[in-house]
């Protein structure tokens, strides 16, 4: 007694989105979501650490906080959510999917150093994404701090301080002593008021994946930022091409909240696999619908990948014909602890390609280096990069017995420098520096 109706792949998606939208309640004010960016040595991490230490509830339970990638703080005047992601990941991945993740960018600049290349890059990203900028002039405790020079240097990049008649707030502070940090939080909340940020605080949740990883004990873990509705334990959700039932929610202190509302980041357990950073998520009525949508998305994604890879293979053949063997290729296999780092590494390393040499990423993924990773590096003569991850015993055997080039890192800029050196080596430039070991204290 069943009538079988063939559903178009778009139908289920449309039905799903329509349902989640009609299910949402009244719009009301939500906290701002802030990304902190800045040059590598200008104190971005120190500022985040100071805010965490003083504003996030103490007494972390169970040590679950290693890498949530985001957290929210309670100030006297309201809540602020911070994203702690590799520079590009906060924008490029999510911009492409049309989801606006960040409301405000705080750009950290050292008062004794001024505007640097990464500072300019952050300004360009914020402007392209049409996100307001607050400049945090850090290291004001130093004797050679010169905030006036910093403000003047920014003029060349069309970032004009309020005191010069512009619309950009500059806040002078020291992440070391904490002076000025409360003023920065006030400035963020002031900017948020101007933006009139609103969201539905009831109904089915939807939002974006900020970070994801495969945890040995807990399985796939996704850090998500709720953008609409309330995400609750027991909800069924579709997360990119993955699906599942929320088995547990964790906040940045390791606590297990019953639910999470707009602008609040939480870790989600219970997904079928590891989603990509930048994937959207939406809560649906039941597991069957969640599975159907996830599978349809997966099929679509595979089809588009096949089309792309066929195109790029053709491109490779054409370029080889055109150039002879003029351009050298450096093959890489990348494994990292979290998806955000994988994306940031891929983005940064591919950008090193030029007329002489092409950086070609054979394989990338989240988790430790496995036997199959080592085999693919061996067959493609690739250099293997482990970022905050290690090789398992089977992979180590392949590496050691075949002389596979395996390098471990914990800082993105070190990876970029090393890959530049390997590339120079291919071009016949001799570099003497050699890292023979790495230790973590």
Describe this protein's structure.
The structure is a single chain. The protein has three domains: 9-26 and 201-295, Elongation Factor Tu (Ef-tu), domain 3 (Beta Barrel), CATH 2.40.30.10; 31-196, P-loop containing nucleotide triphosphate hydrolases (Rossmann fold, 3-Layer(aba) Sandwich), CATH 3.40.50; 325-426, Translation initiation factor IF- 2, domain 3 (Rossmann fold, 3-Layer(aba) Sandwich). The longest helix is centred in the last third of the chain and has 37 residues, at 287-323. The protein has eleven helices and 20 strands. Helix content is 34%, strand content 27%. The strands form five sheets. Strands 3-4-2-5-6-7 form a six-stranded mixed sheet, sandwiched between helices. Strands 9-10-15-13-12-16 form a six-stranded antiparallel barrel. Strands 18-17-19-20 form a four-stranded parallel sheet, with helices on both faces. The model is unreliable at 57-66, 87-99 and 317-324 (pLDDT under 50). With 441 residues, the protein is of the alpha/beta class.
């Amino acid at each position: 007694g069943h009538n079988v109706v063939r559903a178009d792949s778009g139908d289920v998606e449309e039905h799903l989105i329509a349902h989640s939208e009609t299910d949402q309640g009244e719009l009301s004010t939500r906290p701002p979501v802030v990304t902190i960016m800045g040059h590598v040595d200008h104190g971005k991490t120190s500022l985040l650490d100071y805010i965490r230490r003083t504003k996030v509830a103490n007494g972390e339970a169970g040590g679950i906080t290693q890498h949530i990638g985001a957290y929210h703080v309670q100030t006297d005047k309201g809540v602020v959510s911070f994203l702690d992601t590799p520079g590009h990941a906060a924008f490029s991945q999510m911009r492409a999917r049309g989801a606006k993740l960040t409301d405000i960018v705080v750009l950290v600049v050292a008062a004794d150093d001024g505007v640097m290349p990464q500072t300019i890059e952050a300004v360009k990203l914020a402007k392209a994404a049409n996100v307001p900028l607050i400049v945090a002039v850090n290291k004001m405790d130093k004797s050679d701090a010169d905030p006036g020079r910093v403000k003047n240097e920014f003029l060349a990049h069309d970032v004009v301080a309020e005191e010069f008649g512009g619309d950009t707030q500059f806040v002078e502070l020291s992440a070391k002593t904490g002076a000025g940090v409360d003023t920065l939080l006030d400035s963020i909340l002031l900017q948020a008021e101007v933006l009139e940020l609103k969201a539905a605080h009831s109904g089915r949740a939807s939002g974006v994946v900020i970070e994801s990883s495969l945890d040995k004990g807990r399985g796939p873990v996704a850090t998500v930022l709720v953008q609409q509705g309330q995400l609750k334990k027991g909800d069924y959700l579709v997360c990119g091409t993955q699906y599942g039932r929320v088995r547990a929610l964790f906040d940045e202190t390791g606590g297990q909240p019953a639910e999470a509302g707009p602008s609040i980041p939480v870790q989600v357990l219970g997904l079928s696999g590891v989603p990509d950073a930048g994937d959207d998520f939406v809560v649906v009525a039941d597991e069957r619908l969640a599975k159907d949508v996830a599978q349809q998305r997966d099929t679509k994604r595979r089809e588009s990948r096949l089309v792309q890879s066929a195109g790029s293979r053709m491109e490779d053949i054409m370029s080889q014909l055109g150039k002879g063997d003029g351009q050298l290729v450096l093959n890489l296999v990348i494994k990292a602890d979290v998806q955000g780092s994988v994306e940031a590494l891929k983005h940064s390393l591919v950008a090193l390609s030029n007329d002489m040499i092409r950086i070609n990423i054979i394989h990338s993924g989240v988790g430790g280096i496995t036997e199959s990773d080592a085999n693919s590096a061996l067959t493609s003569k690739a250099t293997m990069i482990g970022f905050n991850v290690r090789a398992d015993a089977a992979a180590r055997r392949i590496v050691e017995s075949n002389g596979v080039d395996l390098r471990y890192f914990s800082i993105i800029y070190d990876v970029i420098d090393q890959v530049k050196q390997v590339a120079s080596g291919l071009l016949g430039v001799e570099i003497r520096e050699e890292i023979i070991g790495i230790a973590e204290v």
